[in-house]
Structure formats: C-alpha cells, structure tokens
Design a protein that fits this description.
single chain, Rossmann fold, three-stranded antiparallel β-sheet, alpha/beta
C-alpha cells in the first residue's frame, strides 16, 4: 500500500522537448497512476526514450511540466531508471548494488542487508563477488534491475530493457518485471516489440514522431486502435 506521501500519480502536462533547434517531443499530456505496467510503444525515433527521460527528470521539458504528487522533496530516492545498455561500475556485482545504496544514503549494516536481499531476489547471489562487467548481457540487465529495486522505488522506468538480449534472457527479464508489478511497484517501460507489449502491458501510450497518438488500456489498443498510425504499426508497416 502506498504511503500518504506517495510520489504518484506522475502528471505530465503538455511537456515538450527540443534539441538542436528541432521539436523532438511534442507537448504531450498523460498521467501515470499507482500500479500496473505502462508501455511506451512506437517505432524507432518516436520519442520513447526522450519521454522516459523527461519523466525521470534526466531532461527538463522545453515547455510544459512534469509533476509528482509529493513534490520535489525526496522524490529522487523513490523512482529509478534502468537503461537499454546498463552502466556497470568497475566493481563486483555486490559492490554495484552497494554503491547505489550508499549514494541514496543507506548506512553500512542496512546497505549490506539490502544488497544481499537484492542479490537473492534476482538470482545473483552466486555472482556477488564477480566483476560486474564480466557478466553476460542478461545478467547485467538483471543486476541493473536489482540495483534499482534495492532503492525501493515506487516507480521504475525501463528503456528498451531487452532489446539487446536473446529470447531466453528476454523472457527472464519479462518474468521479473511481472513479479515487480505483482509486488506493487509501478512500471513504465519503452519498447518497439509488439509481442513484448502484448505480454506485459496493462496500458499503452503509443508515440509517433514525438506525438502521443493513443493512450488506452492494452486490450483496447490491440483490439481496436483508433489512429491510422497505430493501425499501420500493428500491421507491421514502416512508419516514418
């Protein structure tokens, strides 16, 4: 159950982003309530990654706003992001998690206990002392999720988390994400993989050329998309 000071819902109010003199993300508006898994879906170049970074706070909107229910104080410790290619520190698997916890203010005994809990939760306990950069791609992505999970986020952002993984590792990550949602963590992730979106999404935000074209429950979106862009994408046609 969320605390009275939950950071959710996250409200995006006509947030746009420009770079090099070009409008890359149009003024889009949507809300992320507590619970479930929202998929940002769309072709490459649709603005999915930029939208995630705007929500997470890595980018500042050129106009519009991104607002959290609890305001700014303490919010950075209550949402986390996992990238397409995770950044692994030149440290052991365990030390990668411990470093993130230390940066968030966790003290020695608590830090050690939470790192051990994350290692066990994500099947990495046997790899604890190994260099993180020597893990396989799937293991590195699991470590990145474990590192984020150890921070106890209410909202977890993931940017194309399986795009560089083989089918077996992809399925493992998908199972983990379903488990996180079942635990009560709200998840927002980007993908251009239709099969993955069908398997995971509770809700779909469909983007095309930086514009939010559709916002619908996943079942509704896949059964009867209302925009020509979404219909074309579902039919496997290239969108430019």
């Amino acid at each position: 159950m969320l605390s009275p000071t939950s950071i959710l819902p996250l409200t995006v109010e006509a947030a746009a982003f420009s770079g090099d003199g070009k409008l890359l993300v149009e003024p889009n508006s949507f809300t992320i309530p507590a619970g479930g898994l929202t998929v940002l879906l769309g072709p490459n170049g649709a603005g999915k990654s930029l939208t995630l970074r705007l929500c997470h706070g890595l980018l500042t909107p050129s106009r519009g706003a991104v607002r959290w229910a609890a305001g700014a104080e303490g919010r950075a410790k209550r949402h986390a992001m996992v990238f397409q290619k995770p950044i692994m520190l030149r440290r052991s698997v365990e030390a990668n998690i411990a470093h993130a916890l230390a940066a968030a203010g966790a003290k020695g005994p608590e830090r050690k206990a939470r790192a051990a809990q994350a290692l066990n939760r994500f099947g990495l306990a046997e790899r604890a002392g190994q260099p993180a950069r020597l893990l396989s791609g799937g293991e590195q992505q699991r470590l990145a999720i474990a590192r984020a999970w150890a921070l106890r986020p209410e909202l977890l952002f993931l940017d194309e988390p399986t795009s560089q993984l083989d089918p077996a590792a992809t399925r493992q990550i998908e199972d983990l994400l379903s488990g996180l949602v079942a635990e009560g963590i709200t998840v927002m992730m980007s993908t251009h993989d239709l099969g993955q979106a069908r398997r995971l999404a509770d809700r779909v935000l469909f983007l095309h050329r930086g514009r939010l074209v559709e916002d619908a429950p996943a079942d509704t979106f896949f059964a009867s998309p209302h925009s020509p862009e979404a219909r074309a994408f579902l039919a496997g046609e290239l969108l430019w």
